[in-house]
Every structure is written in structure tokens, then in C-alpha cells.
Amino acid sequence: MLWGIAGLAPAKQAAAAEAGTATIYYYTPYKNWSTVNIHHNGSGGWTAVPGVPMEAACANWTSKTVNIAAGGTFQTVFNNGSGSWDNNGGNNYSVGLGIHQVKNGQVLANSGNPCANPDPVNTATVFYKPNANWTNVNIHYAPVGAAWTTSPGIAMEPACVGWKKKTLSLGTANGLAATFNNGSSWDNNNGQNYTLGIGISKVENGVVSSGDPCGGGVLDTIAPSVPAGLTQGSVTSASVTFSWTASVDNAGGSGIAGYDIYRNGALIKSDVAVTTYTDTGLMGSTSYNYTVLAKDAAGNKSAQSSALTVLTSAGNQAQIYYYAKTRGWSTVNIHYAINGSGWTTPPGVQMNENACTDWTKKTIELGSATSLKAAFNNGSAWDNNGGADYNLGSGIITVKDGVVTPGSANPCTPLPTDEVAPSVPINVTAVANHLTVTLSWDASTDNAGGRGVAGYEITRTGGTQGSKVMTTTTNSLYDTNLEAQTSYAYTVKAYDKATPSNLSAASAAVTATTGDAPIPNPGGTPLGTDMREDSIYFVMTARFYDGDSSNNRGGQLHVKSGNAANNDPMYRGDFKGLMDKLDYIKALGFSAIWITPVVLNRSDYDFHGYHGYDFYRVDPRLESPGATYQDLINAAHNKGIKIIQDVVYNHSSRWGAKGLFTPKVFGIQDNDWSWYYDDPIPGLEYDGLYPASVSGKAYNGDIWSTVEPEDNTCRNWGVFMNYNPEGRKVYNCQWPNPTSGMFPSQYYHQCWIGNWEGEDSRSCWLHEDLADFNTESKPVQDYLIDAYNKFIDMGVDGFRIDTAVHIPRVIWNRRFLPAAMEHSEATFGEKGKNFFMFGEVGSFVNDKWNRGSVNHSAQFFTWKERQTYSSDDAVAALEQYNYENNLGTGNQPTSTNAFLNGNNYHSPDRSQFSGMNVIDMRMHMNFGDANNAFWNGKDSDDSYNDATYNVVYVDSHDFGPNKSKNAYAGGTDAWAENMSLMWTFRGIPTLYMGSEIEFQAGKEIDCGPNCPLASTRRAYFGDKIEGTVVASSFGKADSANGTVAQTLNYPLVKHVQRLNQIRRKIPALQKGQYSTDGISGQMAYKRRYTDAAKGIDSFALITVSGSATFTGIPNGTYKDAITGGVITVSNGTLTATVSGKGNLRVYVLDLPGNPAPGKIGEDGTYLK
């Protein structure tokens, strides 16, 4: 998809011209511009956007003289400096030496100075009487013989009551066509447009006539009277209602349009139509000052009224006592956030109310809230409850040594003596699991008038460690790290909160015997084997399986995306769900899972993971207690399954990257946008979860401001620009933009992509949701490298790199690839050397090279640099682009790493490998037919450093073959044939979740938020795998029940299970080089892999969907992995007979020390 703004980049490169000058005259009525800039490449390179100002020449004309470098012609475009461009319909204007006119979209070459004989200037004054519901009017018009204004046209001005007016310059035109609108609704004379002449015209109720309906009167410039009589109404702890006496407008004025409300001097509500207002979200026991001003229809504003001061009621209250003795603090501050509000400014407020020895106190007004979060400090050291903060309610609360006691007595009031112990714990149970014993019992009770039960004392006997006493504040305990096959006895006593505490008698003893020690958990360390030994199952985590509904979230656009009933939120699947279904994936036979990005995302529709906001935090919408990302990695590794993490180096979310740069945008809570912008909550950090509602949007109160921030760099802050398709006003700096100055160039690129095969595709923005990192900048490089090193530390086995083509190869080779590999090797040694990275290089073409551009072709990224460039990364990026672009496709390196030498495997030369493998985009594009994909893939393989590492798939979460927007729908037979090819040809076979049952075949893959997810290929998959499945080995389910059992019986599932069984047992199919020499057949090839150090020599003959004859092969005994058939070759020739789409023959040579496996797996619909 192409995103960009016409005119910001040249549509094509200009040819050279002779040195000299060209004078350009531009006709301003064509675009109805008052100022004009000329943006050109007359000096050899394009001027900086928006170009240079043109000077006024005469009525309707501006001019500029341009110095031209050597050559024939140059190119130019024009703009008004406010985002409106004239670039000749995307073709740019071409001019040469001389004096030229650019008028009404045409170059009048060498036509001379139009001001020598200036055109007459005609004008038209148009009056329009709009519908009473229209508060503003635009006139969209075209002078006779000229172009229309840019929709919605230009704003008309108030004339007199009920009328709008605009005087237009028509040049030589003697009339115009016009329509009128309010930004969303239109009056176009029932599709005929209005025909108006020069002079004065008026349009009323569809009728055109002449004359001034205002009688030439004076415009309304007098403000209404100041609102008076502000009167307090109902008041609560969180809201205030007040009213005032209506203002009056001047005689003959335009009439009262509404009122603006101010709280404590800040505007809180615009355009209130009535004379009463309720302000909400306030604090209890707090004084607020309110003023009101009136506005008339002509836009005149009165002064603000006299202030009304209102004190909110007390509301709820928390009396908090904090015990300071243990920490030795002489002063204590409480830093808190009332539920629904932001945090105080650190260190908070001092707890300085009268208390007693060792205790400090603070009373906090909660208003209508019932709870708050708190942390305590002495100005330097903190007590934040171990990082979890304290959750406190209303009433009297004590916090002592980490224990919160709600509803407690005042600790400064002496209590009566308590010398009675709690009741003896009963119903004690002890259950052993491996080396852990879980104890539980019924809670004890304290005596009437006692201090209450404080906790329990557990005594353990047994084992070589002897007796041990433990305590807990709950009625359960996990006793861990015990000895194997050992009997332990436990008794439990209860103690109370008295000083000194009273201890009950011991419970009846219980015993438990531990089992064997569990297998050590390898989580946190990569499995560390060659990724070619695996097949990959690609999972969009948020749409796979819902293991924990508490982290489900619908997002800002949940209704449009099909979650109106709150039953299909965009964030639905999670790590717990993936952990629950690891055995399903293992039963399919996959030993690696590629998961969509895990970092905290931020946008209105971000479940896919590609809008990264906090690159140092896992998105909480994917995690659960006991199912963190680390837990998932560990659980997968324990089953022998690798985790490949999708990562993004190219861009952040539209709201920037936390810890690097996050912009503040213009926002306003007016009638158009109050639904979108949340009230700011001081101290609240975005986490994707708040507020906790499956239908609610994530909090965005921190991203916007109506008042321009002091450090703002975005130009024209809050200036009205136009209307969006929904008819809402759109303001400058409201949405992220690379050209507005909002994003600093140190961290982000400053342009839109104009040419997807040009240099700008590596250094400009793809889309406003994808803020393009300046990856040539060291702070950005350091930020990303450090972030992703932390995930390497967690033990992930590889990275799938999103949008890799949009970062210059030299930056990958200099910075990101070596940083990842060096960190992996330094951290994990030999295992770290097999860290696997593969990039998405979006060359969506059917040919070997991407439209002739080597810099945008997948295979290009598998090679190291072959030239020395500047040490400045930004300069080096351009040098590398130009150097390789000039060499072209015919002078790129080639490799034999994927090919056999006759029948023999040879050691591959990986010395020039960049470190990045790639998705095989050419096979993907050609997978409309397996045979087509095979021959196209084979044709490209000499241009990769080593095509045996290519990641091969039919379709994905983005596109089907041939860049189809719909999921592959070739049918079950075609899918079986595609799989048979992918699992036996070079490369790593990869399957997108659900393809094993043709899930949502033919459906649109992604419609954004504009249709229900359930109607797309990104529909929730979990319904198809409900139930349980157990798999102890790859490619086979030991047991299954529920819906997943039916899914596992699907013909393609059986097919992929057997293909995985076969591939795992034949090294030649995993890592072998291949050849088609001496072979007759369609999709037929021979493969061999040899590793003398490990004693491996595997040679196989493969044919897909049809018979083939192999000549010139080694003599010996060959055994077919599909049928078990045996053929002895004595003349170097073998004929493999096979029929049926998707069927296979895999004849493996029986070699000393490497016996052929014979038949693998059971016959199915396709393999037989």
C-alpha cells in the first residue's frame, strides 16, 4: 500500500540542463492561493520542503527566477505552505531556460511576462443563507475555465443575521460554479451546482438572485453582554452544578451562539448551548472558581463573568497511620493516587498530623472514591510494598511492617490486655508434588475482643535438615526445595496480634512424602540448534487462544472491529492460551513457534503488535500470573519447542517510543472530539490495560494538550486544517506527522515515502501509525539494541524482523545484526551461535529482483557489504544505496551454497553472510501454484548467500500469494501439494496458524478496524482447538478430546503431521543442498547433507505430485519414506512412480552408518 503526500517528493528524477536562469510566473487563481512557494531541483537537488517563496508580480501572478545547473530541463512543483500542493497531477512540471507561465495546470513555455499586459480582474461577491443547523459555511467553487478549489473549499465570513459572505477573485473569468457545505453536509443545487456571475449574488433556499441581502450594512463586531448571576446548584464531593443569567446580543447582532466554561482560569468546555453546566471528576473538600463567557454567531466573545467559588463536599476519607520505628524514619511522606486520579508529585505529602510514638498519620480526602494506592518514603528511601504499592481503602487504616489493616482501631489509643490465644488450626492437609509440599488448613479465629489472628507458625520435621519453623499470614504454605523420596511431618499453630503475641496449641500432625526431582527447567536459555532442523508454526498471539479472559481488551475501535457485544475483543488470545496449546502445536509436528511482537503497543488498533510504544516492556494484555513471557519461553523449551520473536527496528507507534521520545499532540474536548480524548490523570502511565474493561479503550489522557506545551516543536499548533470523512474538524499537530516538526530528527526521519523502490523507502515514513526511526542515529541504535538484548537474555531462539527492507542494509550490517549475534554468543556460547534472524523484505514481485532495484530485493540483505563507506552512518546509507544501485542486478554476488556438486554435498562458504536470513518472498508470491513457486524459487537461489535458510510460506497475516488481500483459497488438494513441496525442498517450512484446516479460506486477511475481525483471516482461532490434547513426541497426539480432537482429524492436519515426522528423520530434507541435474519430472530434485564430524551422510531423491526419473545417481539400495518401497540401483538410474496431487516419493539411499529409515508414519489422504 502507498502512503504519502503529493508534491513532498519528486514524482520522477529530472534530466540535466544547461547552466542559466529560468523565470517562472505562477497564476494564483488556479488554486486560490494568497502565497506561493516554488519547490524545484534546478540546482541539481531538490530544495528543502516547502521550497522558496515566490514574489508578487502583478494581480493574480507571482514570480521567481531560478538558477539552473548544467543540463536541459528541471522539475518544479508549487504549494501554499499549508499542505496544499500543485504537482501537475503527480507528474511535476518540466521547464527549461527562458520566461515561462504556469497557468491552470499547464506550462506556457517561453510565453513571456504576463504582467506586461495584465489580465483584467473580475470579482464576485457571494451571499449565502445556510440551514439553521449550520454554524459555519464553506464555498467550494471553480471560476469558468479553471479548476475547483480543494474540498471543502474556503470558509465564508459572517455578513448579517442568517447570512454568510465571500468575495472571490475570478481573474478574467466572467462567472463561476459553486457549492456550499458545513464540512460534512452539502448544498450542491441537487447535483447541478450553482451558476453565479460576477458582481453581487445571493443564494437562498436554492434560488440564485442578485443584490446584497444585508443592505450593505456593517458586519456584527459587537460582543454579547457578559454572563451574570452565576449561582451554585447541587454540589457533591466530585461534581458541581451551576447556572447563570442568559446574555443578550446587540440590536441587529448575529445572536447568541453559546457559552465557554472556565475552571480556575482554564477552558474546560466550549459551546455550551444552555445556561447551566455540571462539572465532574472533581476532588472532595476542594475550592473551585468558575467563570463563563458568551459568544455570538459572528464569533464575538464577551469578557469572562465574575467568578463563582464553590467548595465540594467532603466525601469519603482515609485516616492512614504508618509505623515508622522499624525503618528508623524520623519523617514520613505518603505518595498516593486516589482511584481514578493521578499520583501526587514525588515524594508526596508529609504525614504530619498528631499521632503517637512510632506512628505517623495523614488524612486524605477521597471524594466519591473508595480507595487509593500509596507508597511511603522519608525523602530518600522508599517503602512501596515490594514494588506493588499499597492498596488502601477508606476509614482508619494502619500500615505496619508491610501489613495493611483496614478498619483497624486507632493505634494511638491504648487497647485492653489480650492474653488469649486464637483457636487451634484444624483440617490440616499436606500434598506432595515432586520436591514441594503444599499445606492448607481452616483459618483460626481469635477470641472476642482480641487483637485478631496475625498468622501461623508451621513446624516441619524429617529429612536430613532436621526440624524447621516457618511462618505465614495466610492459611496455606508452599514448602519447597525438599529432598526427594523423603517423609515430612507438619504441625500448625496460630498466633494473634497482641504484644507479646499469644500462640495456640499445635494442630494434629500430618505427613507427606516427596517424589522424584523434576527434570531441570532449561527455560531462559535458547535450545541452540540449527533452525533448519525445525518447521515453524506462525501464531498471531492475540487471536490464537484465550487462556485468561481478564486481560482481554477491545480498544478504541472495538465496535467497528466486531466487539460491540464485548465477545470478540481484539486482544483475546494470550501467552497462557499459547502455553495451554503447546501440545497441539507439538502434535502437529512443529518445533518452533514464531509469535507476533510482544512489546507494549499503543494505537487505536494494535493487537497485532507492530505499533511498539515501550520496547522494554512486554504488553500486559498478553501476560497473566504464571504465564509471563518468560514462562512461555520456559514452557516451550521444556517441550523442545523454540520461540521466534517478531521484532520491529524500523518504526515505533504513532505516539513514539517510551524512553526515547514521545510527542505531545494537540487535542480538544469539544463536540467533535470529547469522545476521543480522556481527562489527563497525573502520574498514570499507559499500560494498555487501564481502564479494565473488555469494551473500553485504553487510556490516552497523557498524549494530548489543548494548550501548546513549552517544549513543543510542531509548527502551527492547533490551527484548523480541514474536516475528516466523518465531518469532524482536524487540527494541525493533532496527529503525528513527519513533516510538521513534531518528531525530532535525532530520533525520527522527516519525510513520507514517495517511491517504494527509491532511497526514500529506507529513510521516510510508511504511515502515520508507523513513526519511522532514524536508524542512522546512535541514540536510536542504542535504544533498540539494548531493548532487544533483554529479550535475547530471556532465551528466545530467534528474531523475525519486520519491515527489514525499510532500513539500509549497511545499518543492518554495521549495527543491528552484529549486536544481536555478538550478545547471543557472549551470553550463551555455542548455543548462542545458532540464534536465527530472518527478515521481511517486502519485494512483492514475481521476478528475481524487485523491479530492478537490488536495494529492495530480499536476497540482497543476506550479504555483507563489499565496499568501505563513510564512518557517518547517514552518509554511508546514501553511499551504499548509490553504489549498489549503480552496479545493478547483473553485478551482484552469487553463491553455490544451496546446490550440490553433482551428487556430493560441499562445505558452504558463509564468509560473506550478513547475519540476516529472509522470508522467500518470490516463492510466496508465486504460490498460487506449487510448480510455479518451485521453478521461481529455484531460479533465485544463486543470488542468496544460502537459500537453504530461506523461510518459506504460502500466505501470512498480511498477504496471500501474488500480494492477495485474501487468504489462500486454492483448495485442500492444492494445500497438500504446497506442503509436500515446502517440507521436502530447500528452506524452512512455515505455516500460519489455522492453515492446517484452511481456516477462513478466501476471507479478507485484514480490513483494519473497518469490519468485524470474525469476518477476516485474523478471526479468533481458539474455538477450533477447545478441549485437551497431549503430545509427547512431534507429529502425533497421544490423546485428545473436545473440538481439538475433531481438528486433529482434518486431512491436512494428518498430512502436515506426517510431513513433519518424515522431515525430522531425514537430515537431507532439513539442511541438504539440492540439484535437478539428470532428473526428468516436474517438481523433482535430489538432496544431500553431510557432516563428517557427526557421522551424518543423508542422500534423498524427491518427486512431488508426479513420477520422475533420476539419472547419474549413486548405485545402492533406496528406501521410500512414504511407501516403504525398496529399489536397488545398479546403473545410476531410478524411476519413482507417484500419482495424486500432493503425493510424494522420498527415496533415501541406504549408506553405512546412515541406514535409510524406510516407511515413516501412516498413509493418509495424500501420502500413500
TrEMBL record:
GO terms for molecular function: metal ion binding; starch binding. InterPro entries: CBM25 (IPR005085), FN3_dom (IPR003961), FN3_sf (IPR036116), GH (IPR017853), GH13_cat_dom (IPR006047), Glyco_hydro_b (IPR013780), Ig-like_fold (IPR013783). It comes from the Bacteria. Keywords: Metal-binding, Signal. One of its GO terms (biological process) is carbohydrate metabolic process. Transmembrane segments: none annotated. Its cofactor is Ca(2+). Residues 226-315, 421-517 form the Fibronectin type-III domain. Pfam families: Alpha-amylase (PF00128), CBM_25 (PF03423), fn3 (PF00041). This is Alpha-amylase. It comes from Cohnella cholangitidis. The lineage of its organism: Bacteria, Bacillati, Bacillota, Bacilli, Bacillales.
